[in-house]
Amino acid sequence: MTTITKDNFKEDLKELVDVENQKQMNLAILFENSLSNSKEIRLTEFKDGLYVQANYYNSLERYKTEIENLVEQYKKQLDKLFDVCSTRYVNIQRELSAALQSEVIVVTNISINKQNLEKAIEENDSEKIHYYTNKINASIQKKLNYETIVAECNDRLEECIEQISDFSDKIKINEKLDVTTKKKSKILEFFNNLIKKLNRKKNFENYVLKPSEDHIVQLTGEVEKSIGILYNQIFEFALQMEDNKSKINSAFNAMMGA
Predict the structure, then answer these.
(1) Cβ 216 vs Cβ 70: under 8 Å
(2) With 70 as the cut, is the pLDDT of residue 197 above it?
């Protein structure tokens, strides 16, 4: 079993706080960057795709407002999903901070009780020796249990970062741009350009705006489904943490009664 002595507990405590604070800071930065980059990449891809199509159909000026509205609708869906991702991350981080705080308190109490044990030994007080020995051992086990919670929270935070990438793939809107790159014969290209000029309004509406609107409708369902998954994960994690803390206190009380 891990032992903590009067001489080294302050160093252990400082190292614990410094290492975990730095880890939390690094993970938070990584999470925020992943969140921001994913949103920016998806919005830019979608908007650029619409602009390329609009230029192809010579419809950019006429449909600029409609394009901006579509981009705004897409952004709202991204914001809705990633806001819940942030909520999950913050809840886990809050539990991690609480576990670290509890761990610090336990380490401090171990040091205090070790001094009390040394005094009891000097006084040859068998009752106090038994009491403080049990309390130190129970506290050491309590610290180990909090270490397990800290590790679990850190794993969950890393999972949140990976989850952003998964969600980003699910909510990607793929605009087909084959028409802008496909090679054609000069005669076919001439007639296509002529048709394009004559029917540019109809073509842009049918081949770009309407499909994009349909994509966003489909995306709304995917976003709601993903948000449901996130809320379930938030709820299950909260229950798990409450259960863990209850078991830690029960184990501590059992060892104290031994």
Answers:
(1) yes
(2) no
